[in-house]
Each structure stands twice: as structure tokens, then as C-alpha cells.
Fold this sequence. Notes:
Radius of gyration: 25 Å
CATH architecture of the largest domain: Clam
Amino acid sequence: MLRHLLIAAALLATAAPALSDPDPAAPPPGITSTTMTLKRLITLNHVATGKLPPGTPHTHIESWTYRDGTLSGSETTVTSGEDYRTDVTEGPFHNAKGQRAGTAWEQNRNGYTRIVTGIHKRDDANEEARAHALERGSGVTLLGEVSDPVQAYVVKVDPPKGRVEYVFYDAATYLVVRTESAVEGRRIVYTYGDFRDTEKIRQPWHIHRSNGFKDNDRDWTLQSLSYGVTVDPAKLAIPASATPLTLSAAKVSLPARMSGDRIIVRVRIASHKVDLQLDSGASGILLNQAVADATGAKSFGQKTEITAGQYLAADALVSKMDFGVASMQNVAAQTAPYAELTYDETPVAGLLGYDFIAGCVLHVDYYNGTVEAIAPSSFSPPPSAVALPVRLDDGVPIVSVRIGSATASHFIVDTGADRSMIFSAFAQAHPKDVADQGLGQEMTDSFPFVIDIRGVGGKVHVRQVQVRALSIGSIALPDWLFDISQDAPSFEGEDYDGLIGQDVLRNFDVYFDYGRTMMYLVPNERYRQRWGG
Length: 533
């Protein structure tokens, strides 16, 4: 299932509790000592798992059915060597992912295909550690035995740049029957059962996943499995990207306005005109649940999500979104109890993120308050633009910046964030570069209360610091004021360093060109008045 990352920030001044497990990385309770050794356990596991007969081609096809909360679906994976493709169908939705000749890719429910560059590598690090468990520095240790929830040996996997994971090896069969991992402040548990043999390989035909919320439980049941089959290479090709967005001309002016520096776009859904915030920090399209119901959008299933706070979300299918000069047909979206107001107290019904932006080249003129959608085939970057490569692994644009003298490779460019933010992990790793230059303390002294930003589902504590320099490409912005997030693993996500928000973007004409994985900044009059040039 594709990970949702829906971020929209606004300054508030009230406190909110942290939403995370007490300690998701803590060892399982009840571990006792054992005479088993890690080397022997791994050997017994390899024997129990088995291996393919010599000469068997390294290909296989597996088909699963599953229950995801109240929804059911199917998942089929075709593999040939290191190449693979997985197709997932759930209700009216289809998405896919795979790898071809070393290039990983994903295609989302609206048909957009994007290359996955490898921002998230923690699971890969754990897999590598388990494959080389007996080597020095692998981070793999045998902790002992437990009798509950199953009689098993427990191995801790904690490699550099990985995540804390506990692997349960059944004491009788030596097969892996359970894993527990710390992910974004929660404990993720997989259980494995109904082991069967296929071509001398023993593997589970039933898998269950839980993250502590009952409506998020997922069950997979293997329906068929074949090894050594003939695989047509064409079935592993990276699919072309599609889009539900249609423009009425090569360049159109969207019905948008600025509220503060938030970009508000008017759209008609069924007979209703609603306002959505254009949010590059959103990995898709989000609608307020009540608005989705009123406009006839069809909702499917329900899950508990955590971004800035905990909320119930559902998948939705919107038959048409009409922007006057553009439209989208049969749009896969997400619904949630999202509620926001513009600075002039107009209700905002949701977020317009990746699945709109990726269908065009988006030009935001912050100084004049206009927004254009441009057909990618007719776009040429402005000659004076600063070109920035972006990575789109999660459907949000990631750029490299410098904070002081430290490079931060994973900053989200977020038009939905009122203020730029440094995430806690980067701040802890680079204390000298985030040392306050004075203004942060002055603001704290003048307003000595807990400061929060509001995101989807709740609020996040922040503190303010003024860093000595922020550099984006060739652009240098001295003495920049940032928020630093506090105790917010779900909001921050894994592997990200922070957000570039409207306080920075308002000084430029901004062009998002997702098809070419680029964005462009052109200094505007506001920039020239402040810094010259």
C-alpha cells in the first residue's frame, strides 16, 4: 500500500499530545537466556526454509488475496532475477510497483509513474544485515527465548542506518513466524503462518500485519505460487505515466488566489464549488469527508492515519473535478476530517497535491498572486531560473539544501507550510549548524509559550531558531528563521530533514516540473527589494 504523506502547516499557539507508542523500539517482554547460538539458529533456519533444486530458473509468480480493514483486494508479483513487478487491485483502484534493470518505480492509483530513487533505505539495511548476520558490525544479535506470544528465539536486528527490528524464530521449526519493527513512532507487527512447500522452498501462505489500530489490520492469503516459470520481459517493463488532468490550452491561468501565502484554488465537484489548498507537501488529493459525501464522491474502507495527529481516513473516487480551464476525471483521492480556514475565514475543503501537480508544469507567481498550469510539452524553463533537481519517491518534491555548513539532502518543498521547518533528527545530528543566532531566543522571550504548527489530524510542538545561512542551489538566504519540530515522528516521516515553506517560496516565481523531476526558482520583486540582484 502506498504511503500517505499529507502535510499542511499553519502557526498556532496551543499544545497537543504526542501520538506514538511508549517505546516502539523496546525489546519484547519475557526474554530469557538460551543455549542456542546465532550461528546455529541461522543454519537451522536455512535448512528449514530450503532452496530451489539446482538449475531452476530464478523466476517466480505469486498471487495473493488480502483484506485491508474492510476492503478486499488482490496482489500479484512477477519476478525474474532482480527484476520484478507487483500489481495491486483494491475495489476500483489499481497501483503497481517494481524494478527494471536496477531502476525502481511506482505507479499510483491515478496512473502517474515515478522513479524511486532510494530515499528510504532502512528496510534494505535490515535485509542486508540479516543476510550477513554473522559478520562483525552487522547489528544482529540473539537476545534469547520467549514463550509468549509464541515459543521462539528472538533476534534483534539494529544495523547502522536501519531500524530496530525483532525477528522471532519458532523454537520447533526454526522458521520466522513473527517480526516487530519500530516505524515512525509505532510498533509494526507481522505474523507468518500456514507454511507450505513449493519446489522445496517452505514459506508462509498467510501473513498478518498490525500497527496497533484494529481498522488497519491487513491479512494476505497466498493463492498460487510457481517457481522456474517463463516470464515475458515485456511484463516487467516500466509502465508509461498517465494523468487524469486535462488542460483546455497549452497554458491556462487557474482560478486561484493567495490567502497570506497559501494558494487557494476554486474547483467544482458535482454541483458544489469548493476551495482546495494547492499543497506540494501532499502526496495526493485530500478532501474533507463531509464535502466528499455532499459531492457524491464514493468512499471505500476506513483507516486510522497519523500525520500531525490521529484521524480516520478513507479512499475515495471522485468522478470529476472541474477547474474551468482544466479538469480531472475519475480521480482517486483520500478523505479525512480535514478542516481549515483561509486568512479571510473562508473554509478550505482539502488539499490539491501531487496528483494534480504531476499532470502539468505548475507555475506559482507569489508576488502577483497567480497560478498557471502549463502543458509539459510546451514548457521551457525561464533563462534566469535556478534549476533544482527534485526526487519524488513519496509524491512530494525533495531537494538538497545547506543549513549553515551542513548538507541536508532530503528537504520537502511544501507550499502548504506557512514556515520552513527543520526536523528533529537533523537538528540533533548538526547542533552547531542549527545554533540560534539570536532571533529565535528573542521570539521565545517575547512569547514564552508552547508553539505548535497544525497539520492534517492535529498539531506538532516546535521551537524557533535562527540559523546563520540557508542555501538552496546557488541562492543564499542569510540568518533564516526556522521552526524545529519536537517529538513528532509521524509528522516528520522517516529519512526527511525538514520543509521549505512559504516564507522562502514567496520570494520567487516557482515552477514545478515533476515530469522532468525538476523545479525552478526565479527571484521576484520581493526578493530584489530584500536582497538586491
